[in-house]
């Protein structure tokens, strides 16, 4: 496919996504129907689509409309290109701009964004902007700007299998260049060859796992010690379970309300060379219970940009109820002198400090040991961790 044909396809797929179809489903369906497209075409179209979803409001402003074509005009303008260069109507390139489309463009990109309301320039729904500024103050605009960008690829070196230098050398032999990252001593940022990671020897032998650097930093911050019993109450795919298992010699149990989410964990644990038990109904007490609760995912919206447009006040209130319930259940499973750790990948107080304040006000005998947040400006996704103990 030519670069312009990829833009034409991205504009069509974006129309289906704007109509409400999930982006992954739209991209996979297109790839199945389009056997002529190679892996580079699929990757380029995916990049166009996800970039446009991250920057939906600002691109619609620049491109003159919330349509697939409007978003792709906006993307080109933001990249300093004139839409007419790609929309030529020749071969498989998208149709030329109509007069109305041409008139609606904002070619003065910097001025257009400078005078746009903050949530438009920052690519956030209006109702979310106050949540962001309330939580982050002066850091809100920078965090929003970073969520408009593609996420770096991070690896966690599994120190149960080897050290950083061994991992970097192995990755390099497979054409993958990395650099260390200050967020965590086990984090490597992939600087080239990211698409080879899943086929690399280091990945296949469990020497590295894909895991965001701030997610690793969160595991580093947990008060883990050898010999303790740990329950990962919302283990999901097991990212944090495996990170904890690499840190300490401990008896680790993984649980999730949706057992299907745990299905890959036994194979991942075997690959990583660590033991993890799975419990449908965990029986406490545990020395440390981690609840990495379901949340808006706002700290990771650069990876899942559809989430920021899909979130509603009702959905956030539902999440808050689930978060409160999980905290109560997890507290009941925590040993008398144990640690209850609450984590989200959200930037909002409503899912972080407010949940902890509610728990502490309603549940006698608990105190906050410490809490900590990681912002996108530190390089990884946004995360929050609070560690509680009985006081
Ligand atoms: C943020 S994800 C966990 C991610 C995982 N810890 C990791 O690092 O890969 C939240 C998980 O909580 C699970 N969950 C939702 N409601 C739950 C509940 N009431 N009790 C336990 N787990 C729940 C979801 O199925 C989901 O897998």
TrEMBL record:
<dbReference type="InterPro" id="IPR029063">
    <property type="entry name" value="SAM-dependent_MTases_sf"/>
</dbReference>
<comment type="similarity">
    <text>Belongs to the class I-like SAM-binding methyltransferase superfamily. RsmB/NOP family.</text>
</comment>
<feature type="binding site">
    <location>
        <position position="292"/>
    </location>
    <ligand>
        <name>S-adenosyl-L-methionine</name>
    </ligand>
</feature>
<keyword id="KW-0694">RNA-binding</keyword>
<feature type="active site" description="Nucleophile">
    <location>
        <position position="345"/>
    </location>
</feature>
<dbReference type="Pfam" id="PF22458">
    <property type="entry name" value="RsmF-B_ferredox"/>
</dbReference>
<dbReference type="InterPro" id="IPR023267">
    <property type="entry name" value="RCMT"/>
</dbReference>
<feature type="binding site">
    <location>
        <position position="256"/>
    </location>
    <ligand>
        <name>S-adenosyl-L-methionine</name>
    </ligand>
</feature>
<dbReference type="GO" id="GO:0003723">
    <property type="term" value="F:RNA binding"/>
</dbReference>
<keyword id="KW-0949">S-adenosyl-L-methionine</keyword>
<keyword id="KW-0489">Methyltransferase</keyword>
<dbReference type="InterPro" id="IPR049560">
    <property type="entry name" value="MeTrfase_RsmB-F_NOP2_cat"/>
</dbReference>
<protein>
    <submittedName>
        <fullName>16S rRNA (Cytosine967-C5)-methyltransferase</fullName>
    </submittedName>
</protein>
<keyword id="KW-0808">Transferase</keyword>
<dbReference type="GO" id="GO:0001510">
    <property type="term" value="P:RNA methylation"/>
</dbReference>
<feature type="domain" description="SAM-dependent MTase RsmB/NOP-type">
    <location>
        <begin position="143"/>
        <end position="391"/>
    </location>
</feature>
<dbReference type="InterPro" id="IPR054728">
    <property type="entry name" value="RsmB-like_ferredoxin"/>
</dbReference>
<dbReference type="InterPro" id="IPR001678">
    <property type="entry name" value="MeTrfase_RsmB-F_NOP2_dom"/>
</dbReference>
<dbReference type="Pfam" id="PF01189">
    <property type="entry name" value="Methyltr_RsmB-F"/>
</dbReference>
<dbReference type="GO" id="GO:0008173">
    <property type="term" value="F:RNA methyltransferase activity"/>
</dbReference>
């Amino acid at each position: 496919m030519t670069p312009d044909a990829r833009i034409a396809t991205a504009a069509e797929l974006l129309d289906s996504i704007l109509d409400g179809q999930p982006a992954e489903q739209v991209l996979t369906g297109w790839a199945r129907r389009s056997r002529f497209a190679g892996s580079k075409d699929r990757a380029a179209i995916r990049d166009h689509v996800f970039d446009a979803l991250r920057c939906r409001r600002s691109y619609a402003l620049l491109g003159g409309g919330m349509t697939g074509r409007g978003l792709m005009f906006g993307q080109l303008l933001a990249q300093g290109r004139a839409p007419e260069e790609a929309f030529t109507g020749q071969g498989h390139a998208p149709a030329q701009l109509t007069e109305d489309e041409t008139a609606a463009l904002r070619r003065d990109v910097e001025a257009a964004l400078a005078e746009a309301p903050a949530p438009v320039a920052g690519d956030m729904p209006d109702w979310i902007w106050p949540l962001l500024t309330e939580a982050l103050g002066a850091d809100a605009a920078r965090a929003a700007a970073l969520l408009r960008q593609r996420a770096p690829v991070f690896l966690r070196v599994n120190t149960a299998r080897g050290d950083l230098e061994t991992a970097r050398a192995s990755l390099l032999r497979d054409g993958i260049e990395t650099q260390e990252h200050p967020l965590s001593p086990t984090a490597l940022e992939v600087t080239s060859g990211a698409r080879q990671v899943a086929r690399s020897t280091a990945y296949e032998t469990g020497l590295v796992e894909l895991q965001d650097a701030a997610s690793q930093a969160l595991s580093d911050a947990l008060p883990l010690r050898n010999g303790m019993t740990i329950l990962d109450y919302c283990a999901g795919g097991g990212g944090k379970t495996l990170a904890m298992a690499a840190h300490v010699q401990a008896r680790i149990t993984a649980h999730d309300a949706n057992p299907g989410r745990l299905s890959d964990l036994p194979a991942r644990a075997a690959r990583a060379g660590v033991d993890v038990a799975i419990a449908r109904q965990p029986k406490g007490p545990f020395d440390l219970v981690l609840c990495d609760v379901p949340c808006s995912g706002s700290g990771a919206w650069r990876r899942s940009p559809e989430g920021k447009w899909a979130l509603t006040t009702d959905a956030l209130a539902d999440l808050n109820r689930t978060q409160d319930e999980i905290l109560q259940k997890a507290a009941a499973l925590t040993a008398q002198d144990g640690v209850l750790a609450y984590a989200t990948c959200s930037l909002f107080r409503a899912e972080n400090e407010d949940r902890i304040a509610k728990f502490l006000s309603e549940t006698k005998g608990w105190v906050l040991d410490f809490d900590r947040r990681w912002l996108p400006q530190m390089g990884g996704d946004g995360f929050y961790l609070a560690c509680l103990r009985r006081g």
